[in-house]
Each structure stands twice: as C-alpha cells, then as structure tokens.
Amino acid sequence: MNHWLLQPVMLLLLYAQLLLLGLISLGWNLIAAVLYPLLPRQRGLVVGRAGISRGYGLFWAVANASGLLKMNATALDPLRDEPGLIFVANHPSMLDALMLVARLPRSVCVMKASLMHNPFLGPGARLARYIQNDSARGMVRRAVNDLKDGGQLVLFPEGTRTVRPPVNDFRPGFTLIAKLANAPIQTVFIDTDSPYLGKGWPLWRLPPLPIEFSVRLGRRFAPSPDPAAQLAEIQQYFNESLAAPARQT
Q1: Among 17, 39, 40, 189, which lies 20 to 30 A Cα-Cα from 242?
Q2: What global pTM score does this model have?
Q3: What number is the average pLDDT over the span 188-204?
Q4: Per the structure, how many domains does the chain have?
C-alpha cells in the first residue's frame, strides 16, 4: 500500500481502538449504575475495581494484538495482591492510569470531583469508591482509610501530564498519606518515546508507529516521619531515574 494511503488507514485503526475503549467504558458504567444501589459497599468496591481493571485489560489486549499500541506492564503483576501499597508514577500520557489499573485490580485512583458526573467514568468510579479530590483534607482521609482497609492507591504526583521532562514538580500529599496510613511507596516508571496523548499532542495527529509503553518498578520507600523531606527525596529520585541515560539501561 502506498505511503499516502497507509497513513489515513493507520489513523483510522488507531481511532477504532480509542472508540473501543470508549465503548468498553460506557458499557461498564451502564452496568455499574445498576449495581451501585444494589451491592453493599465492600462488595461493590471489589466488583467495581475488578470490572474497571478487566475492561482496561481487554482494551490493552486488543491494542497489543493490533501492533499499533503496545504496552508491557508485567512488572506490576507480582504486586497485584499486596495490600496497603501506594504506587507513585510519572505521567507522560493520557493512557498511564489505564496501564496501571489494568494490572492492579484492587487499586483505587484519585479523580477530579467533576468526573464523577461523567457518564463514561462516573458510575464505575462511584461503584469502585474512587477518591474525589474535592478537598485536600477529605482526599487524604479517604486515601488513608482505603489503604488501612487493604486497598492500593495509584497516584501521579505531577498532577498533570509531563510538560517539563523528565518530570514536573511533584505536588504534596502522597508522602503525608504514606505516613498516616503507615503505607510504603512503590515508585513506578512509565517509559515511552512516543509523544502520543502527551500534553499538547492533538488527538488527530498520527504519531510514529508503533506506540510503545513499558512499565518498570523503581525503589520502594518506607513511610517517613518527615513527609516534606521525603517528597523532595522522591522528586530527586524520579529526576535522576528518568534522565535520558537512565532510560536507556
């Protein structure tokens, strides 16, 4: 096939995968809207988180099979059932949470309060008892309680997708949560050379293919009595570990 014909075909295939993701999300959220008033809180939490994880897992299975969008996050598998663990990762693209949650079926994310009313995300997030960031104090309290109950917390401390490589300045909060919940912090590095769905990348623009993401585990930090100092330490660790030479090892 001529190159000028191949480009739009590849773009359509990539759009088809994103459409599949939207349909999976919408379908699960319709089910979650029915289950939410019927299931007890704890049962709903388990079913809700597993449903989101399996839905994202289905998307990644199709994406990997297509050869256009590849994800390798098997490094997370040994930790999928470990309770009371905080995962802290860098945030290069809009697909980051999907990668981590797909491999961590007991995990919970922090969401903007406004997204709880989104039909593609809200019902499933409510069923899974995802944590709203409506207030800093409330977010910290709910995260601590979930960790003490055996949940896992997935956080992107940059607050938004990376705009200043290797990582944006970290926002405070996760080291305080670790201290209050007595929960270890597992660092996670998401590596990609693709700008696709990064900050400022237009959805319609076809990136170089295939788009590849890989997930690797970093150092685990014990909770610290000094959250501010630990925040600076972990920030420096990410800066050094995601520098260009380190990403080639």
Answers
A1: 17
A2: 0.92
A3: 85
A4: 1
